[in-house]
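Q: I'm building a small set of examples for a reading group on sequence design. Run inverse folding on the following structure and report the sequence directly after it, with nothing in between.
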């Protein structure tokens, strides 16, 4: 469990860095906002806890979010649910495995808010 706590602290530092930086996304032609909404969604979506394995996976993927956002020129998926529009940016990237790097498809989910396009989540497929 100490590893999960350490990952959370490291991920929060990464997230704070992203919150204070302008991250331009060519696919949208605008900056992506990293608000607390995204952090809360990563850790406790809709007030529910994620299982430790899911938290660990998402914390490890967070470091790839900036690169995926800044290099994406195409929105891979658009979905509207309850009048909220969600966008998916995807990339296949080498991710740290147990002993070597492995290729994984990583998806960054962006939500359209009144403030602008906002980071919501990151996951692998």
């Amino acid at each position: 469990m100490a590893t999960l706590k350490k990952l959370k602290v490291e991920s929060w530092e990464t997230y704070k860095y992203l919150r204070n930086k302008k991250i331009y996304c060519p696919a949208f032609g605008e900056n992506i906002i990293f608000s607390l909404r995204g952090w809360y969604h990563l850790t406790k979506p809709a007030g529910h806890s994620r299982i430790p394995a899911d938290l660990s996976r998402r914390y490890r993927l967070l470091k790839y979010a900036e690169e995926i956002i800044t290099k994406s020129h195409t929105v891979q998926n658009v979905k509207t649910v309850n009048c909220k529009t969600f966008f998916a940016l995807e990339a296949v990237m080498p991710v740290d495995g147990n002993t070597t790097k492995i290729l994984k498809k990583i998806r960054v989910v962006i939500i359209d808010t009144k403030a602008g396009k906002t980071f919501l989540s990151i996951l692998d497929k």
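The first helix runs from residue 2 to 19.
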